[in-house]
Amino acid sequence: MRLSGYQPQYFPRLHYFARVLDSDIFEISDYVQFVKKHAYPAHDGKQKRGKSYQAHTIIKEHNGTQLLNVPTKNEGLKPINETTLDYVSQWNEKHLKTIKHAYSKAQMIKSLAGDIENIFKKTYPNIAELNITTIFWAFARLLGDNNARPSELTIENINKLLSGAHPFRLKQVVMLSQTDITPPNQDRDANDWIIDICKRYNADEYYYGGTSASAYMDFERFRKEGINLIEQNWKCAPYSQQYKNAGFIPNLSIIDLLANEPIERAREILQTK
Predict the structure, then answer these.
(1) Distance between terminal CA atoms of the chain?
(2) Which of 17, 124, 210, 222 has the smallest set of CB atoms within 10 Å of its CB?
(3) What is the pTM of this model?
(4) What distance in Å separates the CA atoms of residue 247 and residue 236, rounded to the nearest whole number?
């Protein structure tokens, strides 16, 4: 039984979905601390700080990439599901306009435009709810439901879709804020937390990324608990994109893949080993 976990991200990039869809259980860590930046391993082996993508996504435009930023209120250190959004700048209208312009000639955009517009019309109490809606929207699309409105993008409906026939390994999505599993704190590190999650869902494999490994993971502790660690080595295969002069850009927002490729091809890209 393979488990993977992620903080909810905003219209996540493709590696996010590739890892999640190749797991049996996906846990959404919606109650951990919100951060705009985190440490990650660079190619030279050093630690660098970059976007956490909890409040950003990256799309393609004529001159390359465009980073879309969701402004949050400065209320101190809070969990993701308590971090409120700042709508003063009308960022939602700006993001919608930018996406429509960037993908106006993409072959699948007509089938997506209404969904995306509905997502931006809704007001969200915190960034976790916004991000989870964008994740579940992509899940619904990839699982064959093209008509789900934001109010229908619930964990119950997604798990119902996952119980039916589909080409992915994923069987269940879990929201950690809906469990009694204590999040990491001063007396409880992230290794104990992940091990507890694995035990709760009888997972003997934990599917992780390089950022987690370099930041906090203690491989020996997982080994002693009988949990096999599997590092994601997914590479984004080329697919149709707009703006040929900018070249192919891998691992963009899920919007880019779904706007440019039919569902069957999008599924193939995300399942490429």
Answers:
(1) 19
(2) 210
(3) 0.95
(4) 14
